[in-house]
């Protein structure tokens, strides 16, 4: 058997097994994630699926498509809106330009720590932001940890704002993130996550910004070996459901989906904490240079115009004030 035929046979067998596994379910919800298999968000949705299947007596299942099998986030968001994809674990950034409430949790330095973020998202503010998705064709189900995002690049250690000056840095497609980079003196370059490695390798961009697990699992640390722990963003990731798919479910099944999603949050947080430590250890062992003693005050002060521009309505200003007032 040739290598091609062997590969085809393996793929066919995997597809057949997957089809058989969900054949007993009355409803199989298709869920997308750009992260690889084993990643905390992927595993959390798998656990959600197990709980949902048990709660509905085997009627409703979730089939998870990881590793961007259904496309990059921009494409899957559109597919989710129209019900082609039922569930989607997505970064918050791509929603900033269409759902204004998401801008608030995407503001640089809005959260003082991961614990502070959890308290906010588990409370009234978090629920209000989830509710804001529905008029746009989505049902917000849960927040997952996305860690704290920091800068990495292939050129030099970044220890001050001056070091960022003129650098081409990849960001998600979000006006907030683009303006953040401009305020720091860098050149924002929005592009899909899957293009970052080759773009750094070929010099199209100098670097990007992300958390420990993404920096490690993507292999970006291989081509961008300077990682500065400025922790400018603690942006939650979000699990949404297509409103079109949601409306097909009974009220009882909708409640079961929400309960299963809520239960998956603690799974994600536990796996995330462990994965962060594991990824940090791998990156350090590989010889990446970690810059962790910078003065963040100038970075924070530079964000004043970003807040003024993007938290520019009474509703958004109120959300910012309530987040900052949360102990």
Structure commentary:
With 327 residues, the protein is an alpha/beta fold. The strands form 3 sheets. A 5-stranded mixed β-sheet has the order 2-1-3-10-4, with helices on both faces. Strand 6, helix 8 and strand 7 form a beta-alpha-beta unit. It starts with a helix and ends with a helix. The relative contact order is 0.17. The N terminus is likely disordered.
Query: If you average the pLDDT, what whole number results?
Result: 92
Helix content: 40-55%
N-to-C SSE series?
HEHEHEHHHEEHEHEHEHHEEHHEHHH
**Structural class from helices and strands?**
alpha/beta
CA radius of gyration: 20 Å
Largest sheet: 5 strands, mixed
Strands ordered across the widest β-sheet = 2-1-3-10-4
Number of strands: 11
The global form is: globular
Q: β content, as a range?
A: 15-25%
Number of helical regions:
16
Are there runs of 5+ residues with pLDDT below 50, and where?
1-17
How far apart the termini lie comes to 64 Å
List the helices and strands and how they pair.
Blueprint: H1 3-22, E1 27-32, H2 40-55, E2 60-65, H3 73-81, E3 87-91, H4 102-105, H5 114-121, H6 124-131, E4 138-144, E5 149-153, H7 161-164, E6 168-171, H8 175-183, E7 187-190, H9 196-201, E8 207-210, H10 212-217, H11 220-223, E9 226-233, E10 237-242, H12 243-246, H13 251-285, E11 289-291, H14 297-301, H15 304-310, H16 314-325
Parallel strand pairs: 1-2, 1-3, 6-7, 9-11
Antiparallel strand pairs: 3-10, 4-10, 5-8, 5-9
Helix pairs in contact: 2-13
Can you describe this structure in just a few lines?
The protein is α/β, with parallel strands linked by helices and 327 residues long. The protein has helices at residues 3-22, 40-55, 73-81, 102-105, 114-121, 124-131, 161-164, 175-183, 196-201, 212-217, 220-223, 243-246, 251-285, 297-301, 304-310, 314-325; strands at 27-32, 60-65, 87-91, 138-144, 149-153, 168-171, 187-190, 207-210, 226-233, 237-242, 289-291.
């Amino acid at each position: 058997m040739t290598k091609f035929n062997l590969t085809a046979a393996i793929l066919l067998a995997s597809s057949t097994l997957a089809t058989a596994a969900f054949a007993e379910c009355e409803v199989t919800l298709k869920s997308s994630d750009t992260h690889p298999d084993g990643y905390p968000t992927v595993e959390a949705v798998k656990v959600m699926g197990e709980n949902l299947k048990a709660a509905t007596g085997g009627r409703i299942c979730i089939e998870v498509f990881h590793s961007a099998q259904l496309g990059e986030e921009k494409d899957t968001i559109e597919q989710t809106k129209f019900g082609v994809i039922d569930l989607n674990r997505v970064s918050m950034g791509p929603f900033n330009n269409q759902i204004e409430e998401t801008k608030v949790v995407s503001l640089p330095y809005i959260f003082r720590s991961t614990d502070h973020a959890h308290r906010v998202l588990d409370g009234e503010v978090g629920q209000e932001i989830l509710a804001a998705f529905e008029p746009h064709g989505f049902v917000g189900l849960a927040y997952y940890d996305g860690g704290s995002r920091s800068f990495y690049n292939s050129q030099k250690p970044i220890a001050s704002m001056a070091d960022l000056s003129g650098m081409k840095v990849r960001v998600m497609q979000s006006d907030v993130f683009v303006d953040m980079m401009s305020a720091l003196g860098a050149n924002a370059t929005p592009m899909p996550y899957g293009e970052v490695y080759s773009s750094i390798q070929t010099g199209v961009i100098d670097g990007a910004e992300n958390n420990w697990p993404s920096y490690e699992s993507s292999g970006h640390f291989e081509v961008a070996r300077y990682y500065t722990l400025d922790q400018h963003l603690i942006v939650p990731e979000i699990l949404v459901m297509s409103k079109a798919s949601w409306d097909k479910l009974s009220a009882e099944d909708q409640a079961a989906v929400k309960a299963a999603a809520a239960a998956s949050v603690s799974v994600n947080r536990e796996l995330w904490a462990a994965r962060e430590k594991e990824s940090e250890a791998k990156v350090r062992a590989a010889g990446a240079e970690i810059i962790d003693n910078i003065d963040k005050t100038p970075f924070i002060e530079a964000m004043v115009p970003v807040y003024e521009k993007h938290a520019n309505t009474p509703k958004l200003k109120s959300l910012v004030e309530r987040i900052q007032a949360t102990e």
